[in-house]
Write a structure and sequence with these properties.
- The structure is a single chain.
- 38% of the residues lie in helices and 25% in strands.
- It is built from four helices and seven strands.
- Strand 5 and strand 6 form a beta hairpin.
- It starts with 22 loop residues before the first strand and ends with a helix.
- It has one domain.
- Helix 2 packs across helix 4.
- The radius of gyration is 24 Å and the shape is elongated.
- Strands 3, 4, 5, 6 and 7 form a five-stranded mixed β-sheet that branches.
- It is of the alpha/beta class.
Length: 260
């Protein structure tokens, strides 16, 4: 199972657990937020469902919501700063220009889910099953950096902005095209979830998290690979050659004027 990490900044966006907390899991750039709501925590005279009724547990309702964050623009950084940002090798940077970097788009691609349980305590055990799985996926923290030197020429600025917004559009397209596949996968995982029991409500939630995480890990890896390939198709030698001569070669002139 993916190790848990408490993230106080991320948890409030999820569904709180019965004790006001959230369970947070993170793998790479993906963040999972799992919430828990429990019915009847007092000891019961009998189990939630008998053993023979386990197969009759109703399947959870599944919802999948795409997230397409609008980009924020940062025009305060200079060309050397953007170069250092690219050199840091962060996986969420989508612009990989050789030489001087005049624009960078940074975005984080996430999966986020909430699991709601129907559960009751039976003596020293807790029995339950998921009644709803809510999954959201897509981009957040999208920032388009345009070197402040580019503001000296509206034509140069527009050229860099146009290029960087292509990176944003690629992410948006990926989010829209993968929605049906994601929902089909989550529905498939949901059909395999049945009544389980554990020592506590938290342990019960972990069991269902394990099932969901295991079923999504390979799909996340596929999405990540597709995203890298799609972004690479924008940063081509032909595209860099085009931007070098746009507006009569103003971008290279600005770089030289500033001694970069």
């Amino acid at each position: 199972m993916i190790p848990r990490e408490h993230d106080p900044d991320a948890c409030p966006t999820g569904t709180p657990g019965h004790d006001g907390s959230c369970a947070c899991c993170e793998l790479g750039r993906r963040r999972f937020l799992a919430g828990l709501s429990v019915l009847g925590t007092a000891a019961m005279a009998g189990p939630l469902l008998g053993t023979s009724a386990r197969a009759a547990v109703p399947g959870p309702q599944v919802s999948v919501t795409p997230l397409n964050a609008r980009p924020a623009f940062d025009r305060s950084k200079d060309i050397p700063w953007l170069g250092r940002l690219m050199a840091s090798g962060q996986s969420n940077l989508s612009h990989g220009a050789a030489g001087h970097v005049v624009g960078v788009t940074s975005a984080t691609f996430v999966f986020r889910y909430n699991i709601s349980l129907t559960a009751r305590r039976f003596y020293d055990r807790v029995q339950g099953y998921p009644r709803a799985i809510e999954l959201a996926y897509g981009t957040r923290d999208v920032t388009v950096y345009i070197a402040r030197e580019m503001s000296e020429s509206q034509c140069a600025y527009d050229a860099v902005e146009t290029h960087e917004l292509k990176h944003v559009a690629v992410d948006h397209e990926l989010v829209q095209t993968q929605g049906a596949l994601l929902k089909e996968r989550v529905n498939r995982i949901a059909t395999q979830m049945t009544l389980l029991e554990a020592s506590s409500s938290e342990a019960l939630l972990e069991k269902f998290e394990t099932q969901l995480n295991a079923g999504l890990t390979d799909l996340w890896a596929k999405f990540s690979s597709q995203r890298v390939d799609a972004q690479a198709k924008i940063d081509t030698p032909a595209e860099y050659a085009r931007t070098a001569v746009v507006c009569g070669g103003v971008i290279p002139r600005i770089i030289v004027q500033h001694g970069h």
